Amino acid sequence: MTSTKVESIDDSGDKVKVTVSPADGGDSKVLETDKVMQAIGFKPRTEGFGLEAAGVELTDRGAIEIDGRGRTNVDGVYAIGDVTAKLMLAHTAEAQGIVAAETIADAETMEIEYDFIPRATYCHPQIASMGYTEEQAKERGHEIKVAKFPFAANGKAAGLGETVGFVKVIADAEHNEIIGAHMIGPDVTELLPVLNLAQRWDLTADEVSRSIFAHPTLGESVKEAVHGIAGHMINF
Ligand SMILES: Cc1cc2nc3c(=O)[nH]c(=O)nc-3n(C[C@H](O)[C@H](O)[C@H](O)COP(=O)(O)OP(=O)(O)OC[C@H]3O[C@@H](n4cnc5c(N)ncnc54)[C@H](O)[C@@H]3O)c2cc1C
């Protein structure tokens, strides 16, 4: 299949005019439409701030190279947020700011584990994840256990009429520590904190499964998946 290159978008009139051409060359054509939705990536903007003159090291992607505490290679110069291109999200920038400020103040701090920063996509149904996929976990040498609970078996999801999706939890098989979670379904971004909390403090699925989750809640789907790792699910 030939991919298409967008050459320009003109939204100055009643309709939007999008000029496209085949990526491998050829004639361009103009598509006329009511609206255009753009879904593009972004990259750090680090030119023009004198970083080169200060000797601050950049990555291949033009991001500012930092260590786990936001320190650059130049003493006293710190970087946080999108310019570091770690995971270009608001909560990454906020967490980096806290760690960098604590480091500057010589206070107690905790380095960020970038693999476990929560990822949220606000489509419908929502998508949320943290940590490793099954493949990534195996690549890193983990023996894994996986449990997947469907929202079709969750009472709150049934009540909401939104039963599409699941909660999948990945744990290291040795101690059942939670190392990944992947969810699609109603408000699943709201289910990330319990999983991030468990991962950050090395809680095992067995420990999390001892917490009582209120009924009916979407969170019970996390409980069920975690029970699935620890032994067996209760309601599926
Ligand atoms: C459309 C869109 C949707 C997004 N949705 C989400 C989301 O749902 N969840 C999420 O977590 N993240 C989301 N993000 C990403 C999030 O906004 C960024 O990761 C976050 O804002 C990064 O924070 P920052 O402080 O690094 O940069 P910014 O928030 O961009 O702040 C940089 C600031 O520096 C200022 N500035 C720039 N140049 C100069 C200069 N020369 N002198 C002085 N000031 C300057 C800018 O004006 C700006 O105020 C979204 C981003 C976009 C573009």
What does this molecule look like?
The chain is of the alpha+beta class. 24% of the residues lie in helices and 22% in strands. It has helices at residues 51-54, 90-104, 134-139, 155-160, 192-200, 205-209, 220-230, and strands at 4-10, 16-22, 29-33, 119-121, 126-131, 144-150, 166-172, 177-185. A five-stranded antiparallel sheet has the order 4-5-8-7-6. A hairpin with a 4-residue loop joins strand 7 and strand 8 (177-185). The longest helix is centred in the middle third of the chain and has 15 residues, at 90-104. It is flat, with a radius of gyration of 23 Å. The two termini are 42 Å apart. The model has no long low-confidence stretch (mean pLDDT 96). Flavin-adenine dinucleotide binds next to helix 2.
What keywords describe this structure?
alpha+beta; 8 strands; 24% helix; binds flavin-adenine dinucleotide
